[in-house]
Amino acid sequence: MTVQVLFIQGGGAGTHDEWDNKLVDSLAGTLGAGYGIRYPRMPDEADPRYSSWKTALAAECKALHDGAILIGHSIGGTMLLHALAEMRLSIRPGALVLIAAPFIGAGGWTSDDIMARPNLAECLPPGLPVFLYHGTEDETVPFAHAALYARALPQAVLHTLPDRDHQLNNDLSTVARDIRSRAA
After folding, report:
1. Cα separation of 43 and 20, whole Å?
2. DSSP 8-state assignment for residue 104
3. Structural contact between residues 41 and 8, judged by C-beta atoms closer than 8 angstroms
4. Which backbone phi and psi does 163 adopt, to 5 degrees?
5. Can you tell me the distance from the alpha carbon of 8 to that of 152, in angstroms, rounded to the nearest whole number?
6. What is the pLDDT of residues 112-161, one digit of tens each?
7. CATH (residue range 91-170)
């Protein structure tokens, strides 16, 4: 059976076709056979809004099976995480992967759109494995956000990627290796 991977893009004009598509290509090329990647275009990527993205995420999750891997890059990761904290999934995901996601809350960014959750870990599906990947050379989302997530999600495994930028230098081989090792 093919393992489903849902990859949620970041925000910004052209992100789906000009930036995050390179991440998806890297992931697909490294994962190889046995994995099916869904890469939906999120609504109004130039001006992402939580309510419309949450609706789209809920629809995407309905098409998934138990064991699906959920991946979000940048603000897409933040929105995916917060949506999972609010939704009641009909499936049991295999893992949640956040790549260079901005932290909303104390010490991180403020948002008029996404509510900070001091009890974020408790709101996620029980037993959900969480993996954080953040490059030390990220000039878009400061690397300090990774440590904020590590504190807020004590079950998470943090992967610090030296000399990687916000796009992890368009190389998701580390993410793919970890996904493959979970499925083994």
Report:
1. 15
2. B
3. no
4. 60, 25
5. 21
6. 999 999 899 999 999 999 999 999 999 999 999 999 999 999 999 999 99
7. 3.40.50.1820
